[in-house]
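sry for the spam today, last one i promise. struct tokens for design, 529 residues
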């Protein structure tokens, strides 16, 4: 909201393009801060890597070197977290003017009947960013984060950390270049009169901002639109946030494979749907009632789509255990009690004997005492599960049908995305046409502020999905990442919660449909001043 005051003032004083340019540089500064995070934590990661390389075997050892839990390592991590928080804050400050004032600037400079087409073009370009991001992630995550160190294991290892920071370098360079032409834009594009005029010497005060906010609060369509977009965001964001992790665990993919399969097809479909939708709305000009009614139907289809996505799945992967407690699976049993095993690193091994197969969390929990290439030998825990062999192989047990299921999911998801996002542009049209012209910049900023505030609820979604965790990382007495999920529960929670919020979004849009007669012609050209 603090940033919104500056945004509203910039829009009202004709400094729109300078505001956008400045904030692009602000986002660029955020990328630099994230790079510093990588630099200050480099030494700590090198120490951790050397520790990993010194204990490559990971089998059963009666006397294992205790973890180094000294407090001297912690300050760099805390500093890194603080820098990430600062970087995210600056990114938020820089993004708001681009998505609010920038849209208002464009809307004021085009004919209203052509606005849907331009909204479609801009929205499509926004979708291009995540698409390129997934492609970059796929490329960069195949390489280790430290270019000067050979980790001794590959991307399939759960401990692998790809070159995540490289994308921020490229992002910073591109934003720096894009900010220059934005700063050179005229205050008002030639040939277009200004939709609103600020009198000479008039300034924007907090009282004017408060009056605009009161008008927006009393606008039922605007408030319902905020509720709709909040539920819509939860329905989509919760799914997108957990999708790479879900595909990695459900279909047994590497991090880079999960990234490319979860992001590229669906984002490509989203771009196509937005572009087609913008063109169709611009050509046929459906009224507000038709738009809101159609969006309601599409959201119902979207909710059904989440249930359809529950169907593709692999055979359930069973991990050997000795029961459950409040922490999850009990991995320690009579055969590995004296092995000093820990869960600070997930190095799964597969035990297969004919049609019977199971996985162990690590060769240590399998009670293995030797290793030949990728095979761990002399494993004492296999007898307990009726397996005649006494060796296990590195990695998950291979499922021939799993890749097919991954392809089915990857094909089904973009088809659903393509159908249900055809009217994305209509959301922006309604947002700008259900309010007074003078409230446009305030409305857009308020909309972003409120939806961002409620976005904090996404942490709850992550917590709900983590309730499906069966094995947690435990290092120095502290709980870390989840290593292994109850994938069936993960499936139902992720898709079920997304379907629930999408259903609530459909109800909100249906309420707008009932009030759509209050909206004027959304394509009517405003009076030029």
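last one done:
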């Amino acid at each position: 909201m603090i940033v919104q005051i500056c945004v509203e003032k910039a829009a009202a004083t004709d400094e729109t393009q300078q505001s956008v340019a400045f904030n692009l540089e602000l986002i660029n500064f955020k990328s630099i801060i994230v790079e510093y995070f990588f630099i200050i934590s480099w030494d700590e990661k090198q120490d951790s890597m050397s520790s990993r390389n010194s204990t490559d075997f990971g089998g059963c050892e009666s006397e294992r070197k205790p973890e180094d839990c000294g407090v001297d390592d912690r300050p760099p991590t805390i500093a890194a977290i603080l820098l990430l928080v600062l970087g995210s804050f600056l990114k938020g400050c820089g993004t708001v003017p681009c998505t609010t004032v920038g849209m208002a600037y464009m809307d004021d400079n085009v004919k209203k009947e052509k606005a849907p087409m331009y909204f479609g073009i801009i929205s499509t370009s926004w979708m291009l960013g995540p698409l390129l991001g997934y492609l970059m992630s796929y490329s960069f995550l195949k390489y280790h984060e430290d270019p000067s160190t050979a980790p001794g294991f590959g991307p399939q290892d759960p401990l692998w950390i790809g070159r995540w920071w490289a994308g921020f370098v490229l992002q910073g360079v591109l934003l720096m270049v894009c900010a220059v032409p934005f700063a050179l834009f005229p205050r008002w594009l030639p040939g277009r009169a200004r939709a609103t005029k600020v009198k000479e010497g008039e300034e924007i005060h907090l009282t004017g901002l408060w009056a605009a906010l009161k008008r927006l609060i009393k606008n039922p369509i605007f408030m319902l639109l905020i509720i709709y977009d909040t539920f819509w965001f939860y329905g989509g964001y919760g799914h997108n946030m957990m999708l790479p992790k879900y595909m990695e665990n459900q279909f047994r993919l590497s991090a880079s494979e999960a990234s490319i399969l979860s992001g590229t097809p669906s984002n490509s479909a989203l771009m196509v749907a937005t572009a087609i939708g913008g063109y169709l709305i611009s050509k046929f000009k459906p009224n507000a009632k038709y738009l809101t009614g159609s969006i309601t139907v599409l959201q119902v289809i979207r909710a059904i789509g989440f249930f359809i996505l529950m169907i593709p799945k692999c055979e359930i992967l069973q991990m050997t255990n000795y029961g459950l407690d409040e922490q999850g699976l009990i991995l320690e049993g009579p055969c590995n009690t004296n092995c000093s095993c820990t869960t600070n690193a997930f190095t799964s091994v597969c035990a297969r004997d004919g049609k019977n197969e199971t996985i162990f969390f690590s060769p240590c929990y399998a009670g293995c005492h030797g290793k030949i290439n990728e095979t761990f030998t002399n494993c004492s825990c296999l007898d307990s599960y009726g397996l005649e062999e006494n060796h296990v192989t590195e990695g998950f047990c291979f499922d021939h049908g799993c890749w097919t299921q991954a392809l089915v999911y990857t094909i089904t998801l973009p088809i659903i995305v393509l159908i249900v996002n055809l009217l994305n542009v209509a959301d922006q049209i309604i947002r700008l046409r259900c309010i007074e012209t003078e409230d446009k910049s305030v409305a857009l900023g308020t909309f972003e502020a409120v939806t961002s505030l409620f976005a904090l609820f996404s942490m709850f979604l992550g917590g709900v999905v983590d309730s499906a965790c069966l094995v947690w990382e435990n290092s120095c007495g502290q709980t870390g990442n989840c290593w292994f999920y109850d994938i069936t529960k993960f499936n139902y929670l992720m898709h079920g919660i997304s379907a629930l919020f999408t259903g609530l979004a459909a109800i909100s849009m249906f309420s707008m449909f009932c009030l759509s007669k209050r909206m004027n012609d959304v394509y009517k050209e405003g009076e030029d001043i």
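Residues 40-56, 191-204 have pLDDT under 50 and may be disordered. ok im logging off now
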